[in-house]
Amino acid sequence: MVKIGDVEVGTFPLLLAPMEDVSDPPFRALCKQHGADVMYTEFISSEGLIRDAAKSLKKLDIFEYERPIGIQIFGNEIEHMREAAQIAAAAQPDIIDINYGCPVKNVACKGAGAGILQDIPKMVAMTAEIVKAVNLPVTVKTRLGWDENTKYIVEVAERLQDVGIKAISIHGRTRKQMYKGEADWSLIAETKNNPRLHIPVFGNGDVDSPEKALEMKNRFGVDGIMIGRASIGYPWIFNEIKHFLKTGEHLPPPEIADRVAAAKAHLEMAVKWKGDRVGVYETRRHYTNYFKGIPHFKPYRTQLVTEENPVALLQLLDEIANTFESVAL
Fold first, then answer.
1. Annotated catalytic residue within 36, 81, 96, 102
2. Has this prediction a pTM greater than 0.90?
3. I need a labelling partner for 321 at 20 to 30 A (CA). Which of 19, 50, 201, 223 fits?
């Protein structure tokens, strides 16, 4: 059984990666329903939390059925991050996670997210302060390094463990790579195999199929896998991987009725949580994957990403279910 501190997370846990404008409560609910073991919130700005910014505070919403769940924070000021961690802990998650991996320019170039990989001593000092500030397990999500010449992840993981983190998730790219090229899991394995490291190491990057998950598990020996982009609009991936790891067989793909049911549930929860306009808008990015591979679907896809009325969208989804019910996937 893998543990993050005292939190049991399964024998080979599958984690839903924190993704901005994606891993919100409606989507997390679907991922939990379809097999995700641990979930993280969207990343939350430390500055937004200490200023009581409404958007940041809204991201603190977590629900009992989601557990175990981590709240992820990011920022570049040590004192502000310490304070933000305490605010996040008051929302009673199971885990506090620190984002040291976001490569986006307006985060990384301000010294937050992956930007802190250019200042490892500050990264260690910030982590130590956050660990001291909360009574919850603290985890870190990061990358191999800033660029090809600074892949210090093996040493970094050890130093972060020494100041008290309870698990680390590593994306197998540098910040400079963004999401290009192929993720390099060899350094993730080297981190895991460091004899001084005893915390769980979770691998992240390019796992988009049950076969890939099995390969990463067997080749690199990680304690679990964090899945990001492959889950967008396809929450079934978690149970598909679990079934394949257990039996070597594939679950049948979700049928049209399953896809429509998931899309409707997602939309309804999003509208309930964020209101009509934002709920409709934030669900749009998922539709392409919900209905991926369906022939002659383009006219419906166009309607799904342009219609603004949630009632009309639900009717459209019913029409899709009826139109394509006999299509084999």
1. 102
2. yes
3. 19
